[in-house]
């Protein structure tokens, strides 16, 4: 169905590109709204910004026609271009009046249906963000679990290390006791031992600890968006991560 | 090399290609070299994630963002709707209460007892008897006057209790649809008994409470047609007869 829609869009793009812009007004609105939410554009500027975006698109259409290789859907491609145009407008206007959205998503403990739907969206966003780490995803997941002292099991290790032995798992468990109180250095030191053994590396515990700190900062930035429309911190990111991957009832059976 | 890279980063189409895969939740369709680049390149990652966010939220985005004026209008509209809904609910509740109470009144006034000796309507006795008409919802009496073989057989077998004689309604007596139906018997009723009325298909239309007087009047309107009725005691059938309700 999506394919058919894309074919129709492409046909329109080839024969009546101006009409395609009319067709994508909803998408353009959505993108401008995101920039309004982030404080980069004012609400009352919406019509004016939309006009500017449309003008820019019309100017760029011939170039877009040549550059498009039909590898992505046209709509997503146009979305990327419109976003770039919005960024150009911001650069021109030098507007950096950033305001943030509520933090309710992360802080609310008792939430209603709408909040829970928002949280479901956020969980999905987080999962998609983690998928972008491709081969590093399982390493990232394990390190995040350990960094936030979350429950984990042997599968987290077998996904990461080939032929991972249960003895090494027991050894690791022993090394990180008491789990809740032990320092990051001790945990990542125990983990580095396993990395060096299974991945044939010679890393220091500090390197892994630094790596995960950088990745957390990246994930927080990704979730906040560019332009920022959310206000995640490492703390609120941790809450989201916990909600995303663990039930409250889950017991750290292997740890205690 | 494909043209999805420019100056070491993904082009707009490269970004869109990756975002499309995320939207379809099919990361495996992304070419390996693009996935590997994104894995290491935060700038591309950030752009992809933004486009993914835009396209996945596109439908809801417009409805989420409203101006302060629109918000005020929305609040007022919402309040009016709430008030209207409350009024509607109150009206519906009053109607239901009125309907139930009027039905109860009809039921109570629909059954009359007649004094054993004089045949006059006695309000006190009405209250005491508190006759119940158990309407059988599943059936509607038929207009048909065709006879029921089962009941006809019962009628022909005469009374089981010879001391009781049905005085009225007489067999096949015609009763006006808007008049009360008066049941009268001779003889002594040693035990409480009750009347059960059936339509010609054998479906029970109503039954009275148990009583010991020699007469009853039921003013519940029956649809024109043939009806059978039984006079019963706890363990005994005292008599069976029939009457016809006419317009």
Strand tally of chain A: 0
The first-to-last residue Cα distance of chain B is 96 Å
Biggest chain pair interface: A-B, 39 and 39 residues
Per DSSP E runs of 2 or more residues, the count of β-strands of chain B stands at: 11
Describe the model:
The complex is a heterodimer of chains A (256) and B (247). Chain A folds into 2 domains: 92 residues, Rna Polymerase Sigma Factor, Chain: A; 142 residues, no CATH class. Chain A has 13 helices and no strands. Chain A is mostly helical. In chain A, helix 1 crosses helix 2 and helix 3 packs across helix 4. Helices cover 67% and strands 0% of the residues of chain A. Chain B is α+β, with helices and mostly antiparallel strands and 247 residues long. Chain B folds into 2 domains: 58 residues, no CATH class; 136 residues, Sandwich (Immunoglobulin-like), CATH 2.60.40.1220. In chain B, the strands form 3 sheets. Chain B has a 5-stranded mixed sheet, covered by helices on one side. Chain B has a 4-stranded antiparallel sheet with strand order 3-9-6-4. Chain B is elongated. At the A-B interface, helix 3, helix 5, helix 7 and helix 12 of A face helix 1, helix 2 and helix 3 of B.
């Amino acid at each position: 169905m999506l394919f058919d829609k894309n074919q129709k869009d492409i046909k329109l793009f080839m024969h009546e590109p101006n009409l395609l812009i009319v067709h994508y007004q909803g998408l353009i609105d959505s993108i401008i709204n995101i920039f309004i939410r982030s404080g980069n554009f004012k609400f009352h500027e919406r019509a004016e910004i939309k006009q500017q975006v449309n003008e820019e698109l019309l100017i760029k259409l011939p170039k877009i026609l040549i550059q498009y290789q039909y590898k992505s859907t046209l709509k997503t491609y146009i979305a990327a271009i419109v976003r770039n145009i919005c960024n150009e407008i911001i650069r021109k206007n030098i507007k950096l009046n950033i305001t943030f959205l509520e933090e309710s998503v992360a802080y609310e403990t008792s939430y209603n249906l709408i909040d829970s739907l928002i949280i479901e969206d956020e969980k999905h966003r987080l999962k998609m963000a983690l998928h972008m780490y491709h081969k590093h995803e399982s390493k990232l997941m394990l390190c995040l679990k350990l960094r936030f002292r979350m429950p984990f099991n042997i599968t987290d290790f077998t996904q990461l290390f080939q032929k991972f032995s249960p003895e090494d798992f027991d050894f690791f468990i022993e090394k990180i006791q008491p789990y809740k109180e032990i320092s990051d250095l001790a945990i990542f030191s125990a983990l580095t031992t396993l990395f060096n053994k299974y991945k044939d590396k010679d890393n220091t515990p500090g390197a892994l600890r630094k790596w995960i700190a950088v990745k957390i900062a990246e994930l927080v930035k990704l979730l906040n968006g560019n332009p920022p429309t959310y206000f995640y911190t490492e703390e609120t990111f941790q809450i989201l991560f916990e909600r995303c991957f663990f039930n409250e009832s889950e017991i750290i059976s292997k740890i205690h | 090399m494909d043209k999805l890279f420019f100056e070491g980063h993904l082009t707009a189409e490269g970004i869109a290609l990756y975002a499309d895969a995320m939207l379809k939740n099919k990361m495996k369709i992304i070419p390996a070299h693009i996935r590997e680049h994104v894995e290491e390149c935060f700038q591309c990652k950030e752009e992809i994630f933004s486009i993914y966010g835009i396209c996945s939220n596109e439908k809801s985005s417009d409805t989420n963002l409203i101006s302060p004026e629109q918000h005020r209008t929305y609040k007022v509209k919402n309040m009016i709707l709430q008030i209207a809904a409350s009024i509607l609910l109150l009206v519906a509740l009053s109607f239901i209460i009125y309907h139930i109470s009027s039905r109860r009144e009809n039921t109570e006034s629909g059954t009359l007892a007649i004094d054993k000796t004089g045949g006059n309507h006695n309000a006190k006795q009405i209250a005491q008897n508190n006759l119940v008409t158990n309407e059988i919802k599943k059936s509607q009496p038929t207009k048909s006057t065709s006879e029921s073989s089962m009941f006809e057989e019962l009628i022909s077998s005469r009374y089981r209790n010879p001391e009781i004689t049905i005085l009225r309604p007489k067999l096949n007596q015609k009763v006006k649809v808007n008049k009360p139906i008066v049941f009268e018997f001779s003889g002594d009723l040693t035990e409480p008994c009750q009347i059960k009325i059936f339509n010609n298909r054998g479906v029970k239309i109503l039954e009275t409470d148990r009583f010991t007087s020699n007469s009853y009047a039921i003013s519940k309107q029956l649809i024109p047609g043939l009806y059978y009725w039984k006079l019963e005691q706890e363990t005994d059938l005292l008599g069976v007869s029939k009457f016809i309700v006419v317009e």
